[in-house]
Predict the structure.
Amino acid sequence: MKHEQTADLPYLRKVVGASMAGTVVEWYEFFLYATVATLVFGELFFPQTGNELDGIIAAFATYAVGFIARPLGGVVFGHIGDRIGRKSLLQFSLVLIGVSTFLMGCLPGFASIGYWAPALLVLLRFIQGFALGGEWGGAVLLVTEHSPNRSRAFWGSFPQAAVPIGNLLATVVILALSATLSEEAFTAWGWRVGFWLSVVIIAIGYYIRTQVSDSPIFKAAQEKVEAEPETRHGLTEVFRNNPRGLLTAMGLRFGENILYYMVVTFSITYLHHREVNTTRILALLFLAHIAHVVVIPIIGRLADRLGRKPVYVAGAGLALLWPFIAFPLFDTGQTATILQAIVLGLIVHGMMYAAQPAIMTEMFPTRMRYSGVSLGYQVTAIFAGSWAPMVGTFLLRETDSWVPIAWYIVGAAAVSLLAALMMRETKGASLAGIDREDAQRSAGAKAG
């Protein structure tokens, strides 16, 4: 099939741009929440106990709600997306997360409406997480299903690079607001501006996504389902026919997800607790996100050349070492050493993150792919990144030491290392070939 081998590069770039546009928007909003939760929400939306870490822990609990909603979004969007396509659901998810984020910027605080403040925050966070849960699978599949076999990890890494770009935008906005406003003004109303700005970015992302269509291989699978009504697709087929792929995807995701949120979210809390200035922390994260954006496509290209497995194994192995290097560097309080620790963490993360779209795409046939990649990616977040900042903050409060936090990261990285060692190498795999093998297995099962 032509689209598998040569690909229309101008159109493929357009598809990549459409995928990235929405992903940038949605992660801008998701990371904006994470940053403001650390800096403002604990004080604004929750009753005060006299210990600032208690409010931050409560804010991170609402942060976790978004992760809990993500697999539900992944299930719903994935099941429907395997039926009707990726594009239309991506447009809907973009609007949904934009509305919920804008309304967050309008919420009154605990002093005004009492416990309605955290209740409404939780509701909007749930909607935001639900929308994001459907976003990732569709965005990466829009790219990987259009990509040539030989360079799928490279092209598929661009939606992953959109995540730090979104984080970069959020950091820039919060940094600009915190640097130009007094602390009182930022806490009172300044943080809301970042949430309101999402309307502009949403409009741009939505328009770009109207300019592309679903991949030829998905359209072929859709036609097969319509021609053969007995052909099953979606959620139930993942559990029935590919439990190994699902469990492997979840294992790969576990340590990567925890590492990321410890680097970009918990580090803000840790450094702030060590009395590093907030503006300086955000400036360092800004520089680190730039490095992350640059390194992800490079690692994607490496995964096409060397294979998915050796790159992932190296990343998971280095994740075991990162906390024992990073926290002593954090404790120096020196700008250069703090930056080194954060950048190193994001490079290690990129070694696991860059090739995930290609790896997970190649694990599942087209008729169940949206459901499979969404479940593998999003369900894991419930047990991984959703709780990571809160676990780190709790351990810091109880021990005032980074050592237990480091061992928490090591345990998570070990899970991903084991999954990487056990996964099958799929470098250069043909998606059409995967579909043919799936059809043969299904025919054999029916004949048996």
User: Anything to note?
Assistant: The two ends are 31 Å apart (CA to CA). The chain has one domain: 7-436.
